[in-house]
Amino acid sequence: TCDVEAGAPVVVATEASPAELLLRHGRLPLRRAGECELRLALKPAEEDNLRLDKEEVLEKAGLSPAQLWTLRAGNLDRSEVLRYMRLVELGGMDAFILEAIFINDVWDYHIAEPFSPANEDAACDAAIAACEAALERLGADEAGDVDAADGEGSRASKLAALRVGERAALRDTILWLRLERAANEGKEYYQERRLRELNLDRPVDPDEIVPV
């Protein structure tokens, strides 16, 4: 602690979310009004027999099986959220990438970009569904929150302002994800990337054909 002169500004330096700042200090940071925290998680082990392998990937990446993400309003990149959901939805014929020979490079390389069409569709859809569920939990009285947010600084007006900002962050994230989903057909996936990197995405040269 330290002495503060009367009338001197007091600054709270913290990495806490706007919701946490409101809870702890009774204030909303004006510059971070359009923020929302969203927790995304791996599926339970009974629903995903690859969960332990995925936990290993996340541990190497310094992330949690139930990771908290900060979403912000505006035209911002949400590629890290999408990368996380690629891992969550990884399965079926794509599961080979979790084998021991590949697993060290899964987060930094293999799912840093789209992995397969089916996985990319599922990742986008699951992320959109999570955002829509969070939006629904904020309640339907959006107009009431907008009006209340213009109040005189009461706790109710601050809570309303918080919900207004969270809705903006969630809606912009949903829009970004929908645009990504719409672009899935034109994306380059793991198989194409590997062929290109190995210089195999071209016609076979006659000199490369070995007679049987």
Question: Can you put this structure into words, describing what you see?
Answer:
The protein has 212 residues and is mainly alpha-helical. It is 47% helix and 7% strand. The protein contains eight helices and two strands; from the N terminus they run H-E-H-E-H-H-H-H-H-H. The protein has a two-stranded antiparallel ribbon with strand order 1-2. It starts with 17 loop residues before the first helix and ends in a 15-residue tail after the last helix.
Unreliable residue runs? 10-14
Strand-residue proportion: 5-15%
- Mean pLDDT across residues: 84
- Separation, N- and C-terminal Cα atoms: 83 Å
Classify the oligomer: single chain
Strand tally is: 2
Strand order of the largest sheet: 1-2
Rounded radius of gyration (Å): 23 Å
Helix/strand order, N-terminal first:
HEHEHHHHHH
Q: Which class do the helix and strand fractions yield?
A: mainly alpha
Quick one: biggest sheet? 2 strands, antiparallel
**Overall geometry:** elongated
Share of residues in helices: 40-55%
Helix count equals: 8
What keywords describe this structure?
two-stranded antiparallel ribbon, about 210 residues, about 45% helix, mainly alpha
Brief account:
This protein is mainly alpha-helical and 212 residues long.
